[in-house]
Structure formats: C-alpha cells, structure tokens
Write a structure and sequence with these properties.
Blueprint (H helix, E strand, L loop, with lengths): L5 H19 L8 H11 L14 H14 L2 H24 L6 H11 L2 H8 L4 H16 L5 H14 L11 H9 L4 H23 L1 H19 L9 H16 L9 H23 L5 H20 L13 H7 L12 H26 L4 H11 L3 E6 L1 H9 L5 E4 L3 H9 L5 E5 L10 E10 L10 E9 L6
Parallel strand pairs: 1-2, 1-3
Antiparallel strand pairs: 3-5, 4-5
Helix pairs in contact: 1-4, 2-3, 3-4, 4-5, 4-6, 4-7, 6-16, 7-8, 8-10, 10-11, 13-16
Length: 480
C-alpha cells in the first residue's frame, strides 16, 4: 500500500523546493518604504502609525508575526510565506489548466512560475502581494471548478472574504465569478454567509485592536490620500502616455523578463523565444478552439483588474501591481507544447528548452542582485558611518525611512515650505546632507558638493532605484 502516489510525492518535492529556494535567497535589509511598514508591523501592529498602512492586511501580518515569534528571523519569515505562496500558485494553476504535474506541459508550467523573475522577487519581499495572489487563484479555482460539490463554492466565497484581509486591491479580480455564481444559485444566503465569515475572521480582531472610529478615520484619510494625493493614481499621475508605457513595460519587462531599453543582451535574445512561445500558444489556443467558458471568465477577471490598476494604482513606480496579469501567460504558455504538426515539434521543443535556459539565467541574475541592499538601504548604511553629518534634508518618505531605521540626525522636510524657510533663515554651521536633486533650491548662499550616487537595478525594484546626495555648506557673508 502506497501512502502517496507519484504526483503527490512530486508535489511535496516542489513544495519543499519552493520554500527552500526562497529561504536561500532571503533578504536582510529593508528595501523600500512599503517593506518598512510591514517589517515594523511584526514588532508593533498599529495601522494608526501606518504599521502597516491601511487596510492593515491583518491576516498576512498575523501569520508573519506568528512565524517571526517562532523563528526570530525577519528575512526567513517572509520567505517561508513567499515559498508556500509560490507552491499554492503552482498547484491551483495546474488544477485550473487540468495538467498533471509530471506531464511535459505540467513541468513547463511549474518551471515558468518557479523561475519567473517578478514572482521570485515578490516571494522574498516583505509584502503580502504574492500571498494575496495565491489566495485569489485558490478562490478562482473553487469558483470555476467543474466539481459539483457545494463545499467548493462555499470555500470560494470564504476565501474571497479572506482575500479582503490579505490584499484588498485584488478583490476586483473576483467580481465576475463572485456575481455569476451568486446569480445562478438558490442557496445564495449561504454563499453570502461564507463570504461574511471570511471577512469577519479578520475584521472583528482588527476592530478590537484598533477601534472602529480609528479604523474609519484612518481608512477615510488613506482612501482620499491614495486616490487624490500620494497613491500614484490617474488623478495624481495623469500623463496617459507614461501610464500606458509603464503598464506595458511592467508586464513585458518586469513580469516576463523581456527586453527593454538599457537591459542586457540576454533579455533581447530571450524576448525572441518569448514571442515565439506566445505566438505558438495563441495558435494552439485558437486552432484547437480551447477558449471555453472558464477561460473567458479568467480573461474577464484580468481585464477588470487591468482597468482597476491602470486608473487607481501606482503602476509608474510599482510594477508589482501587474502580478495577477501574469496568470494569463502561465496558463497559455504550456499550450505551446501541444504540437499542431509533428513535423515542427522538434523545433518547438528546442525553442522551449532555449526559453527555459534564458529564463533561468535572467531570474538567477536578478535574484542575486536582490540579495544586495537597495539604493535607499545603501544610503542608510552610509549615513550610519558619517558621524559628522548632523542635518539631513529630503522628502518626507525618505526622512521617514531613515528615522525608522535608526538614523539619529536632524531631519528637514524639503516639501514643507515653513520648515524649509526656517532652516535657511537659521545660521546653521552643521554639515548638511541633501538627498535628492534639489540643488536649485540652494543656489543662493550655499556651496553644493556632489557626495554620492546610490543605485540598484530598477528591474529588482523600481522604487528609488537611483538616489543622489550632496553636501551643502552655507557661505559666510563676504564669500564669493
């Protein structure tokens, strides 16, 4: 009697590989402002202090907090969640695609998810995006599954409620299947109940911890701020050409590893195989008439989500928002291995092998770069060594990042005109560091000296990929 069959044993190996590989590539620095908020929530969960920011991501933060309590290691904590998330994505996309994990197409699907550059980056990042993606795909499977068992459908609605407490901005992904199933079922009361239970599991503790009035106040202010001030939505960044270009770039270059200006020659050659695989997949899809009802639902989900992020999310500087769109490519790429003609099958196999080799090379390079500190983390490390600098002038977010990372300096907010003018009025003889290219604001009465330029690959993280710093010295009266 065999306890596990071959497929189950192989899936266990994949699970351990996902977790183990992510632990090996864990990062031990705070790479951006969003990661900082989630890292701080491990020590003190408080959405009033934006630890993390609204809506609080209570389920993700709770799991991370429990793991950190056991392990005592921040990088490994988030990598374990990331590794489990990667496996969950692989498992349910195999089920949705109706592929055996040991089949050629199944192995290809596993490979392209496992080594996808953005998926791997996000599995190590101190953020809930990949975990939210895995819950979305799980819920989607239960919504569109052919299994008649009602428990599956209840589970789909329950997971949708949970998703709101993991990654609220992913909820638009499930609007279509959520409403379709609700419309066609007599037991809709139980479906709504399942969804409500999923919501209440995280909402009740959140209210008890934070207080309803505080949640309402923080939620209202953050929502207005996100759409109308700092969130990078179309209301604040309404250059449509840039938004369209960055949307395409995020999917093609960041998400799939394709070539873009100033990227390496490897990505250019890889792009040729990427296009060939895509074209072959579409040919198989259309010629074999594989666009069924479930495929149309998936397309609808991703279309709704694409519209949502295009107008409401910061797609200019945060490519992680396009993660769910990659699902379409994960589903159709394995179709390329279904030959339309035996005559061309050897060429298709050779193309797939080349595709895999380049994908492996590109991803491993990017993941290796991710292990090194980001530009802002390099700046923080440099400031720790520069004891002579007493005053730092920069934007509120950079100042916040440095202060919360233990940098003991006097910080001036350059965007606060009153604070900035007061600083200039004072007869300040301290050594001053200006972070960011704001030289024109000091053209009078100050000598400006280029100090350092900190850089990381923007395809690892678009946020603050290059930071310039300057030493500024106030001229004494009579200086020329």
């Amino acid at each position: 009697y065999n306890l596990f069959n071959k497929n189950q044993i192989f899936l266990i190996i994949i699970l351990l590989s996902c977790i183990g590989s992510r632990i090996l590539t864990s990062i031990y620095y705070i790479e951006d402002i969003d990661s900082l908020r989630f890292a701080l929530s491990i020590y003190e969960y408080d959405i009033i202090k934006l630890q993390p920011h609204f809506p609080g991501y209570p389920i993700f933060s709770f799991i991370a907090k429990c793991l950190y309590f056991i392990l005592g290691n921040m990088g490994v904590t988030f990598s374990i969640i990331g590794g489990i998330s990667v496996f969950n994505i692989i498992y349910f996309l195999l089920r949705i695609s109706k592929l055996s994990p040991l089949s050629t197409s199944g192995l290809f699907l596993i490979f392209i998810i496992f080594f996808n550059p953005l998926v791997w980056l996000m599995s190590n990042r101190y953020m809930p995006d990949l975990f939210g993606l895995s819950i979305f795909i799980s819920a989607l499977y239960f919504f569109i599954s052919d299994i008649k068992d009602r428990k599956f459908l209840y589970l789909g609605y329950f997971l949708t409620g949970l998703l709101a407490g993991i990654r609220l901005s992913y909820l638009p992904l499930l609007i279509i299947p959520f409403l379709m199933r609700l419309k066609s079922r007599e037991n809709r009361k139980f479906l709504i109940l399942s969804f409500s239970i999923g919501c209440l599991i995280w909402l009740i503790p959140l209210i008890l911890i934070t207080g309803f009035e505080n949640i309402w106040s923080v939620g209202y202010n953050h929502t207005i701020g996100h759409f109308m001030d700092y969130g990078g939505s179309a209301f604040t960044n309404n250059d449509w050409s840039i938004r369209i270009t960055r949307f395409i770039q995020s999917v093609w270059a960041d998400g799939l590893g394709g070539y873009w200006l100033e990227r390496s020659w490897q990505t250019f050659i890889f792009s040729i195989f990427l296009l060939l695989i895509f074209i072959q997949s579409l040919r198989v899809l259309l010629i074999n008439k594989l666009i069924d009802k479930n495929f149309k639902i998936i397309i609808g989900c991703l279309l709704v989500y694409s519209i949502w992020i295009f107008f409401s999310q910061n797609i200019i500087y945060k490519s992680r928002h396009i993660l769910p769109i990659l699902i379409l490519f994960f589903i159709i790429f394995p179709l390329a291995l279904k030959p339309l003609s035996r005559k061309f099958y050897p060429y298709i196999k050779a193309g797939v092998v080349a595709f895999c080799l380049f994908l492996f090379s590109i991803s491993i390079t990017i993941i290796g770069q991710h292990k090194n500190p980001s530009a802002i983390a390099q700046l923080k490390n440099d400031l720790e060594q520069q004891k002579s600098i007493k005053t730092v002038i920069s934007t509120p977010l950079i100042n916040y990042y440095l202060k919360l990372n233990g940098i003991k300096k006097k910080f001036i907010n350059i965007e606060n005109s009153k604070e900035f003018e007061l600083f200039k009025y004072e007869n300040n003889n301290d050594e001053i560091l200006l972070i960011g290219n704001f030289k024109l604001m000091f053209k009078d009465d100050y000598t400006i000296i280029v100090d350092s330029i900190f850089y990381h690959n923007p395809y690892v993280n678009r946020m603050w990929s290059q930071i310039e710093t300057y030493k500024i010295i106030k001229q004494k009266r009579g200086d020329i």
